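A.,

Following up on our hallway conversation. Structure tokens first:
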């Protein structure tokens, strides 16, 4: 035991076999005595010194979301943790997403009015809570790098995947390349906003923000769907394109303009060409694999939703690594080899004329690997980060609570005599 730890011993008797079990609890007052799997001491120092800089000149943010969040802040109890507000906001979008997946797994179905209303309302509540969490953090003095990572990490879940897939389901695209493009162009934008933040030092949101301003398009589409039905979106409009196909034009124009803006800012402020390339290698490998699988297999037309889910876990892990790079100033905190290799092996299966593995089974295996890799990594990162910073994740630390958490370890000490010792066993229990 180190000097900052203490032991508590209890004796448990068993009269029948006449042996004693000692339970020893080691309570560590210093979180740095725990094994560091991801963060070094230098990372922790950089984390504590990190200052977030963001500029949001969005029209809706200025006139709607910030005033609404300030009104809600006055009615928000101080015991409600900012990260819990972030998580609740995410659930407002995730729960309707389950409903849309149930009624329209192939992005083509009949949706009850209550689901469309809850989807639109959930999108608005998510924006409100996404603005409120930062105000609550400053109000209760609980702002931290962990809160920033928690907020932006869930943003990458909600915006490109939950919100965009809900919108594609409402627009009645069906399993098609339009959905594949719609979802990934949204992820590309939000990922490169983080790349820009890494090199410029500021998260600079454009005047027309796809998240804060584009949510009105999502809500309007869902409400309109209640009145016009599913066939309206496939009716021809111009040059043989349908209503839902022309809807994709505006997001694509916005994506090109935002990416051009990102890269202009990056090259103006940074000359770290090698580091810039590193942020793109994994991104291009995953996107290349995704595009190739879409066109080399039938999965885009048969299991597109599952294909997007499978790649989303790889893309999210890559994005989280970039966000950790921003706050710690160190790359590869999360090992991305187990992100790239499964994607390349999955794509390699379709380069052969007769794939050795059935494409559906290959997709299930790829999804299982990515889900396991994500679940095995990200909760551990959050727990270690909270321990290193001495903060709670989903609750607010009380004023009289120590600034550093107690890490509790349990061990079992087993002593003789026992029946095996009395029989003269070659493997006594005391061993």
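Then the amino acids I'd put at each of the 431 positions:
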């Amino acid at each position: 035991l180190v000097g900052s730890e203490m032991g508590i011993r209890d004796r448990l008797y068993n009269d029948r076999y006449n042996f004693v079990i000692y339970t020893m609890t080691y309570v560590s007052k210093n979180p740095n005595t725990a094994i560091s799997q991801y963060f070094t001491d230098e990372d922790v120092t950089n984390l504590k010194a990190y200052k977030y800089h963001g500029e949001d000149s969005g029209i809706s943010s200025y006139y709607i979301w910030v005033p609404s969040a300030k009104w809600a802040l006055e009615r928000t109890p101080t015991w409600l943790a900012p990260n819990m507000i972030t998580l609740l906001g995410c659930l407002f979008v995730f729960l309707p997403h389950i409903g849309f997946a149930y009624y329209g797994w192939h992005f083509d179905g009949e949706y009850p009015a209550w689901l469309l209303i809850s989807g639109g309302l959930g999108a608005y509540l998510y924006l409100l809570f996404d603005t409120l969490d930062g105000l609550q953090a400053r109000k209760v003095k609980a702002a931290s790098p962990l809160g920033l990572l928690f907020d932006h990490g869930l943003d990458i879940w909600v915006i490109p995947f939950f919100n965009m897939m809900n919108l594609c389901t409402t627009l009645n695209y069906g399993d098609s390349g339009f959905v594949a493009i719609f979802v990934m162009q949204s992820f590309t934008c939000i990922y490169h906003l983080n790349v820009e933040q890494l090199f410029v030092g500021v998260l600079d949101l454009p005047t027309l923000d796809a998240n804060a301003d584009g949510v009105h398009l999502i809500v309007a589409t869902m409400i309109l769907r209640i009145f016009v039905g599913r066939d309206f979106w496939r009716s021809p409009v111009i040059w043989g394109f349908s209503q839902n196909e022309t809807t994709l034009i505006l997001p694509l124009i916005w994506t090109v303009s935002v990416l051009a803006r990102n890269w202009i800012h990056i090259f103006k402020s940074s000359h770290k060409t090698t580091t810039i390339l590193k942020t793109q290698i994994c991104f291009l490998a995953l996107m290349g694999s995704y595009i190739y699988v879409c066109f080399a297999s039938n999965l885009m037309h048969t299991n597109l939703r599952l294909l997007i889910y499978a790649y989303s876990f790889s893309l999210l892990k890559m994005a989280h690594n970039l966000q950790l790079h921003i706050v710690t100033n160190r790359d590869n905190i999360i090992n991305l080899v187990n992100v790239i290799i499964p994607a390349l092996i999955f794509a390699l299966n379709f380069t052969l004329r007769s794939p050795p593995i059935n494409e559906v089974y290959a997709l299930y295996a790829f999804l299982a690997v990515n889900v396991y890799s994500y679940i095995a990594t990200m909760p551990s990162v959050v727990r270690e980060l909270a321990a290193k910073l001495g903060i709670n994740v989903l609750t607010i630390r009380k004023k009289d609570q120590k600034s550093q958490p107690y890490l509790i370890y349990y061990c079992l000490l087993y002593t003789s005599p026992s029946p095996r010792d009395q029989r003269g066993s070659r493997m006594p229990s005391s061993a």
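Residues 1-34, 403-410 have pLDDT under 50 and may be disordered. Curious whether your intuition agrees with the design.

B.
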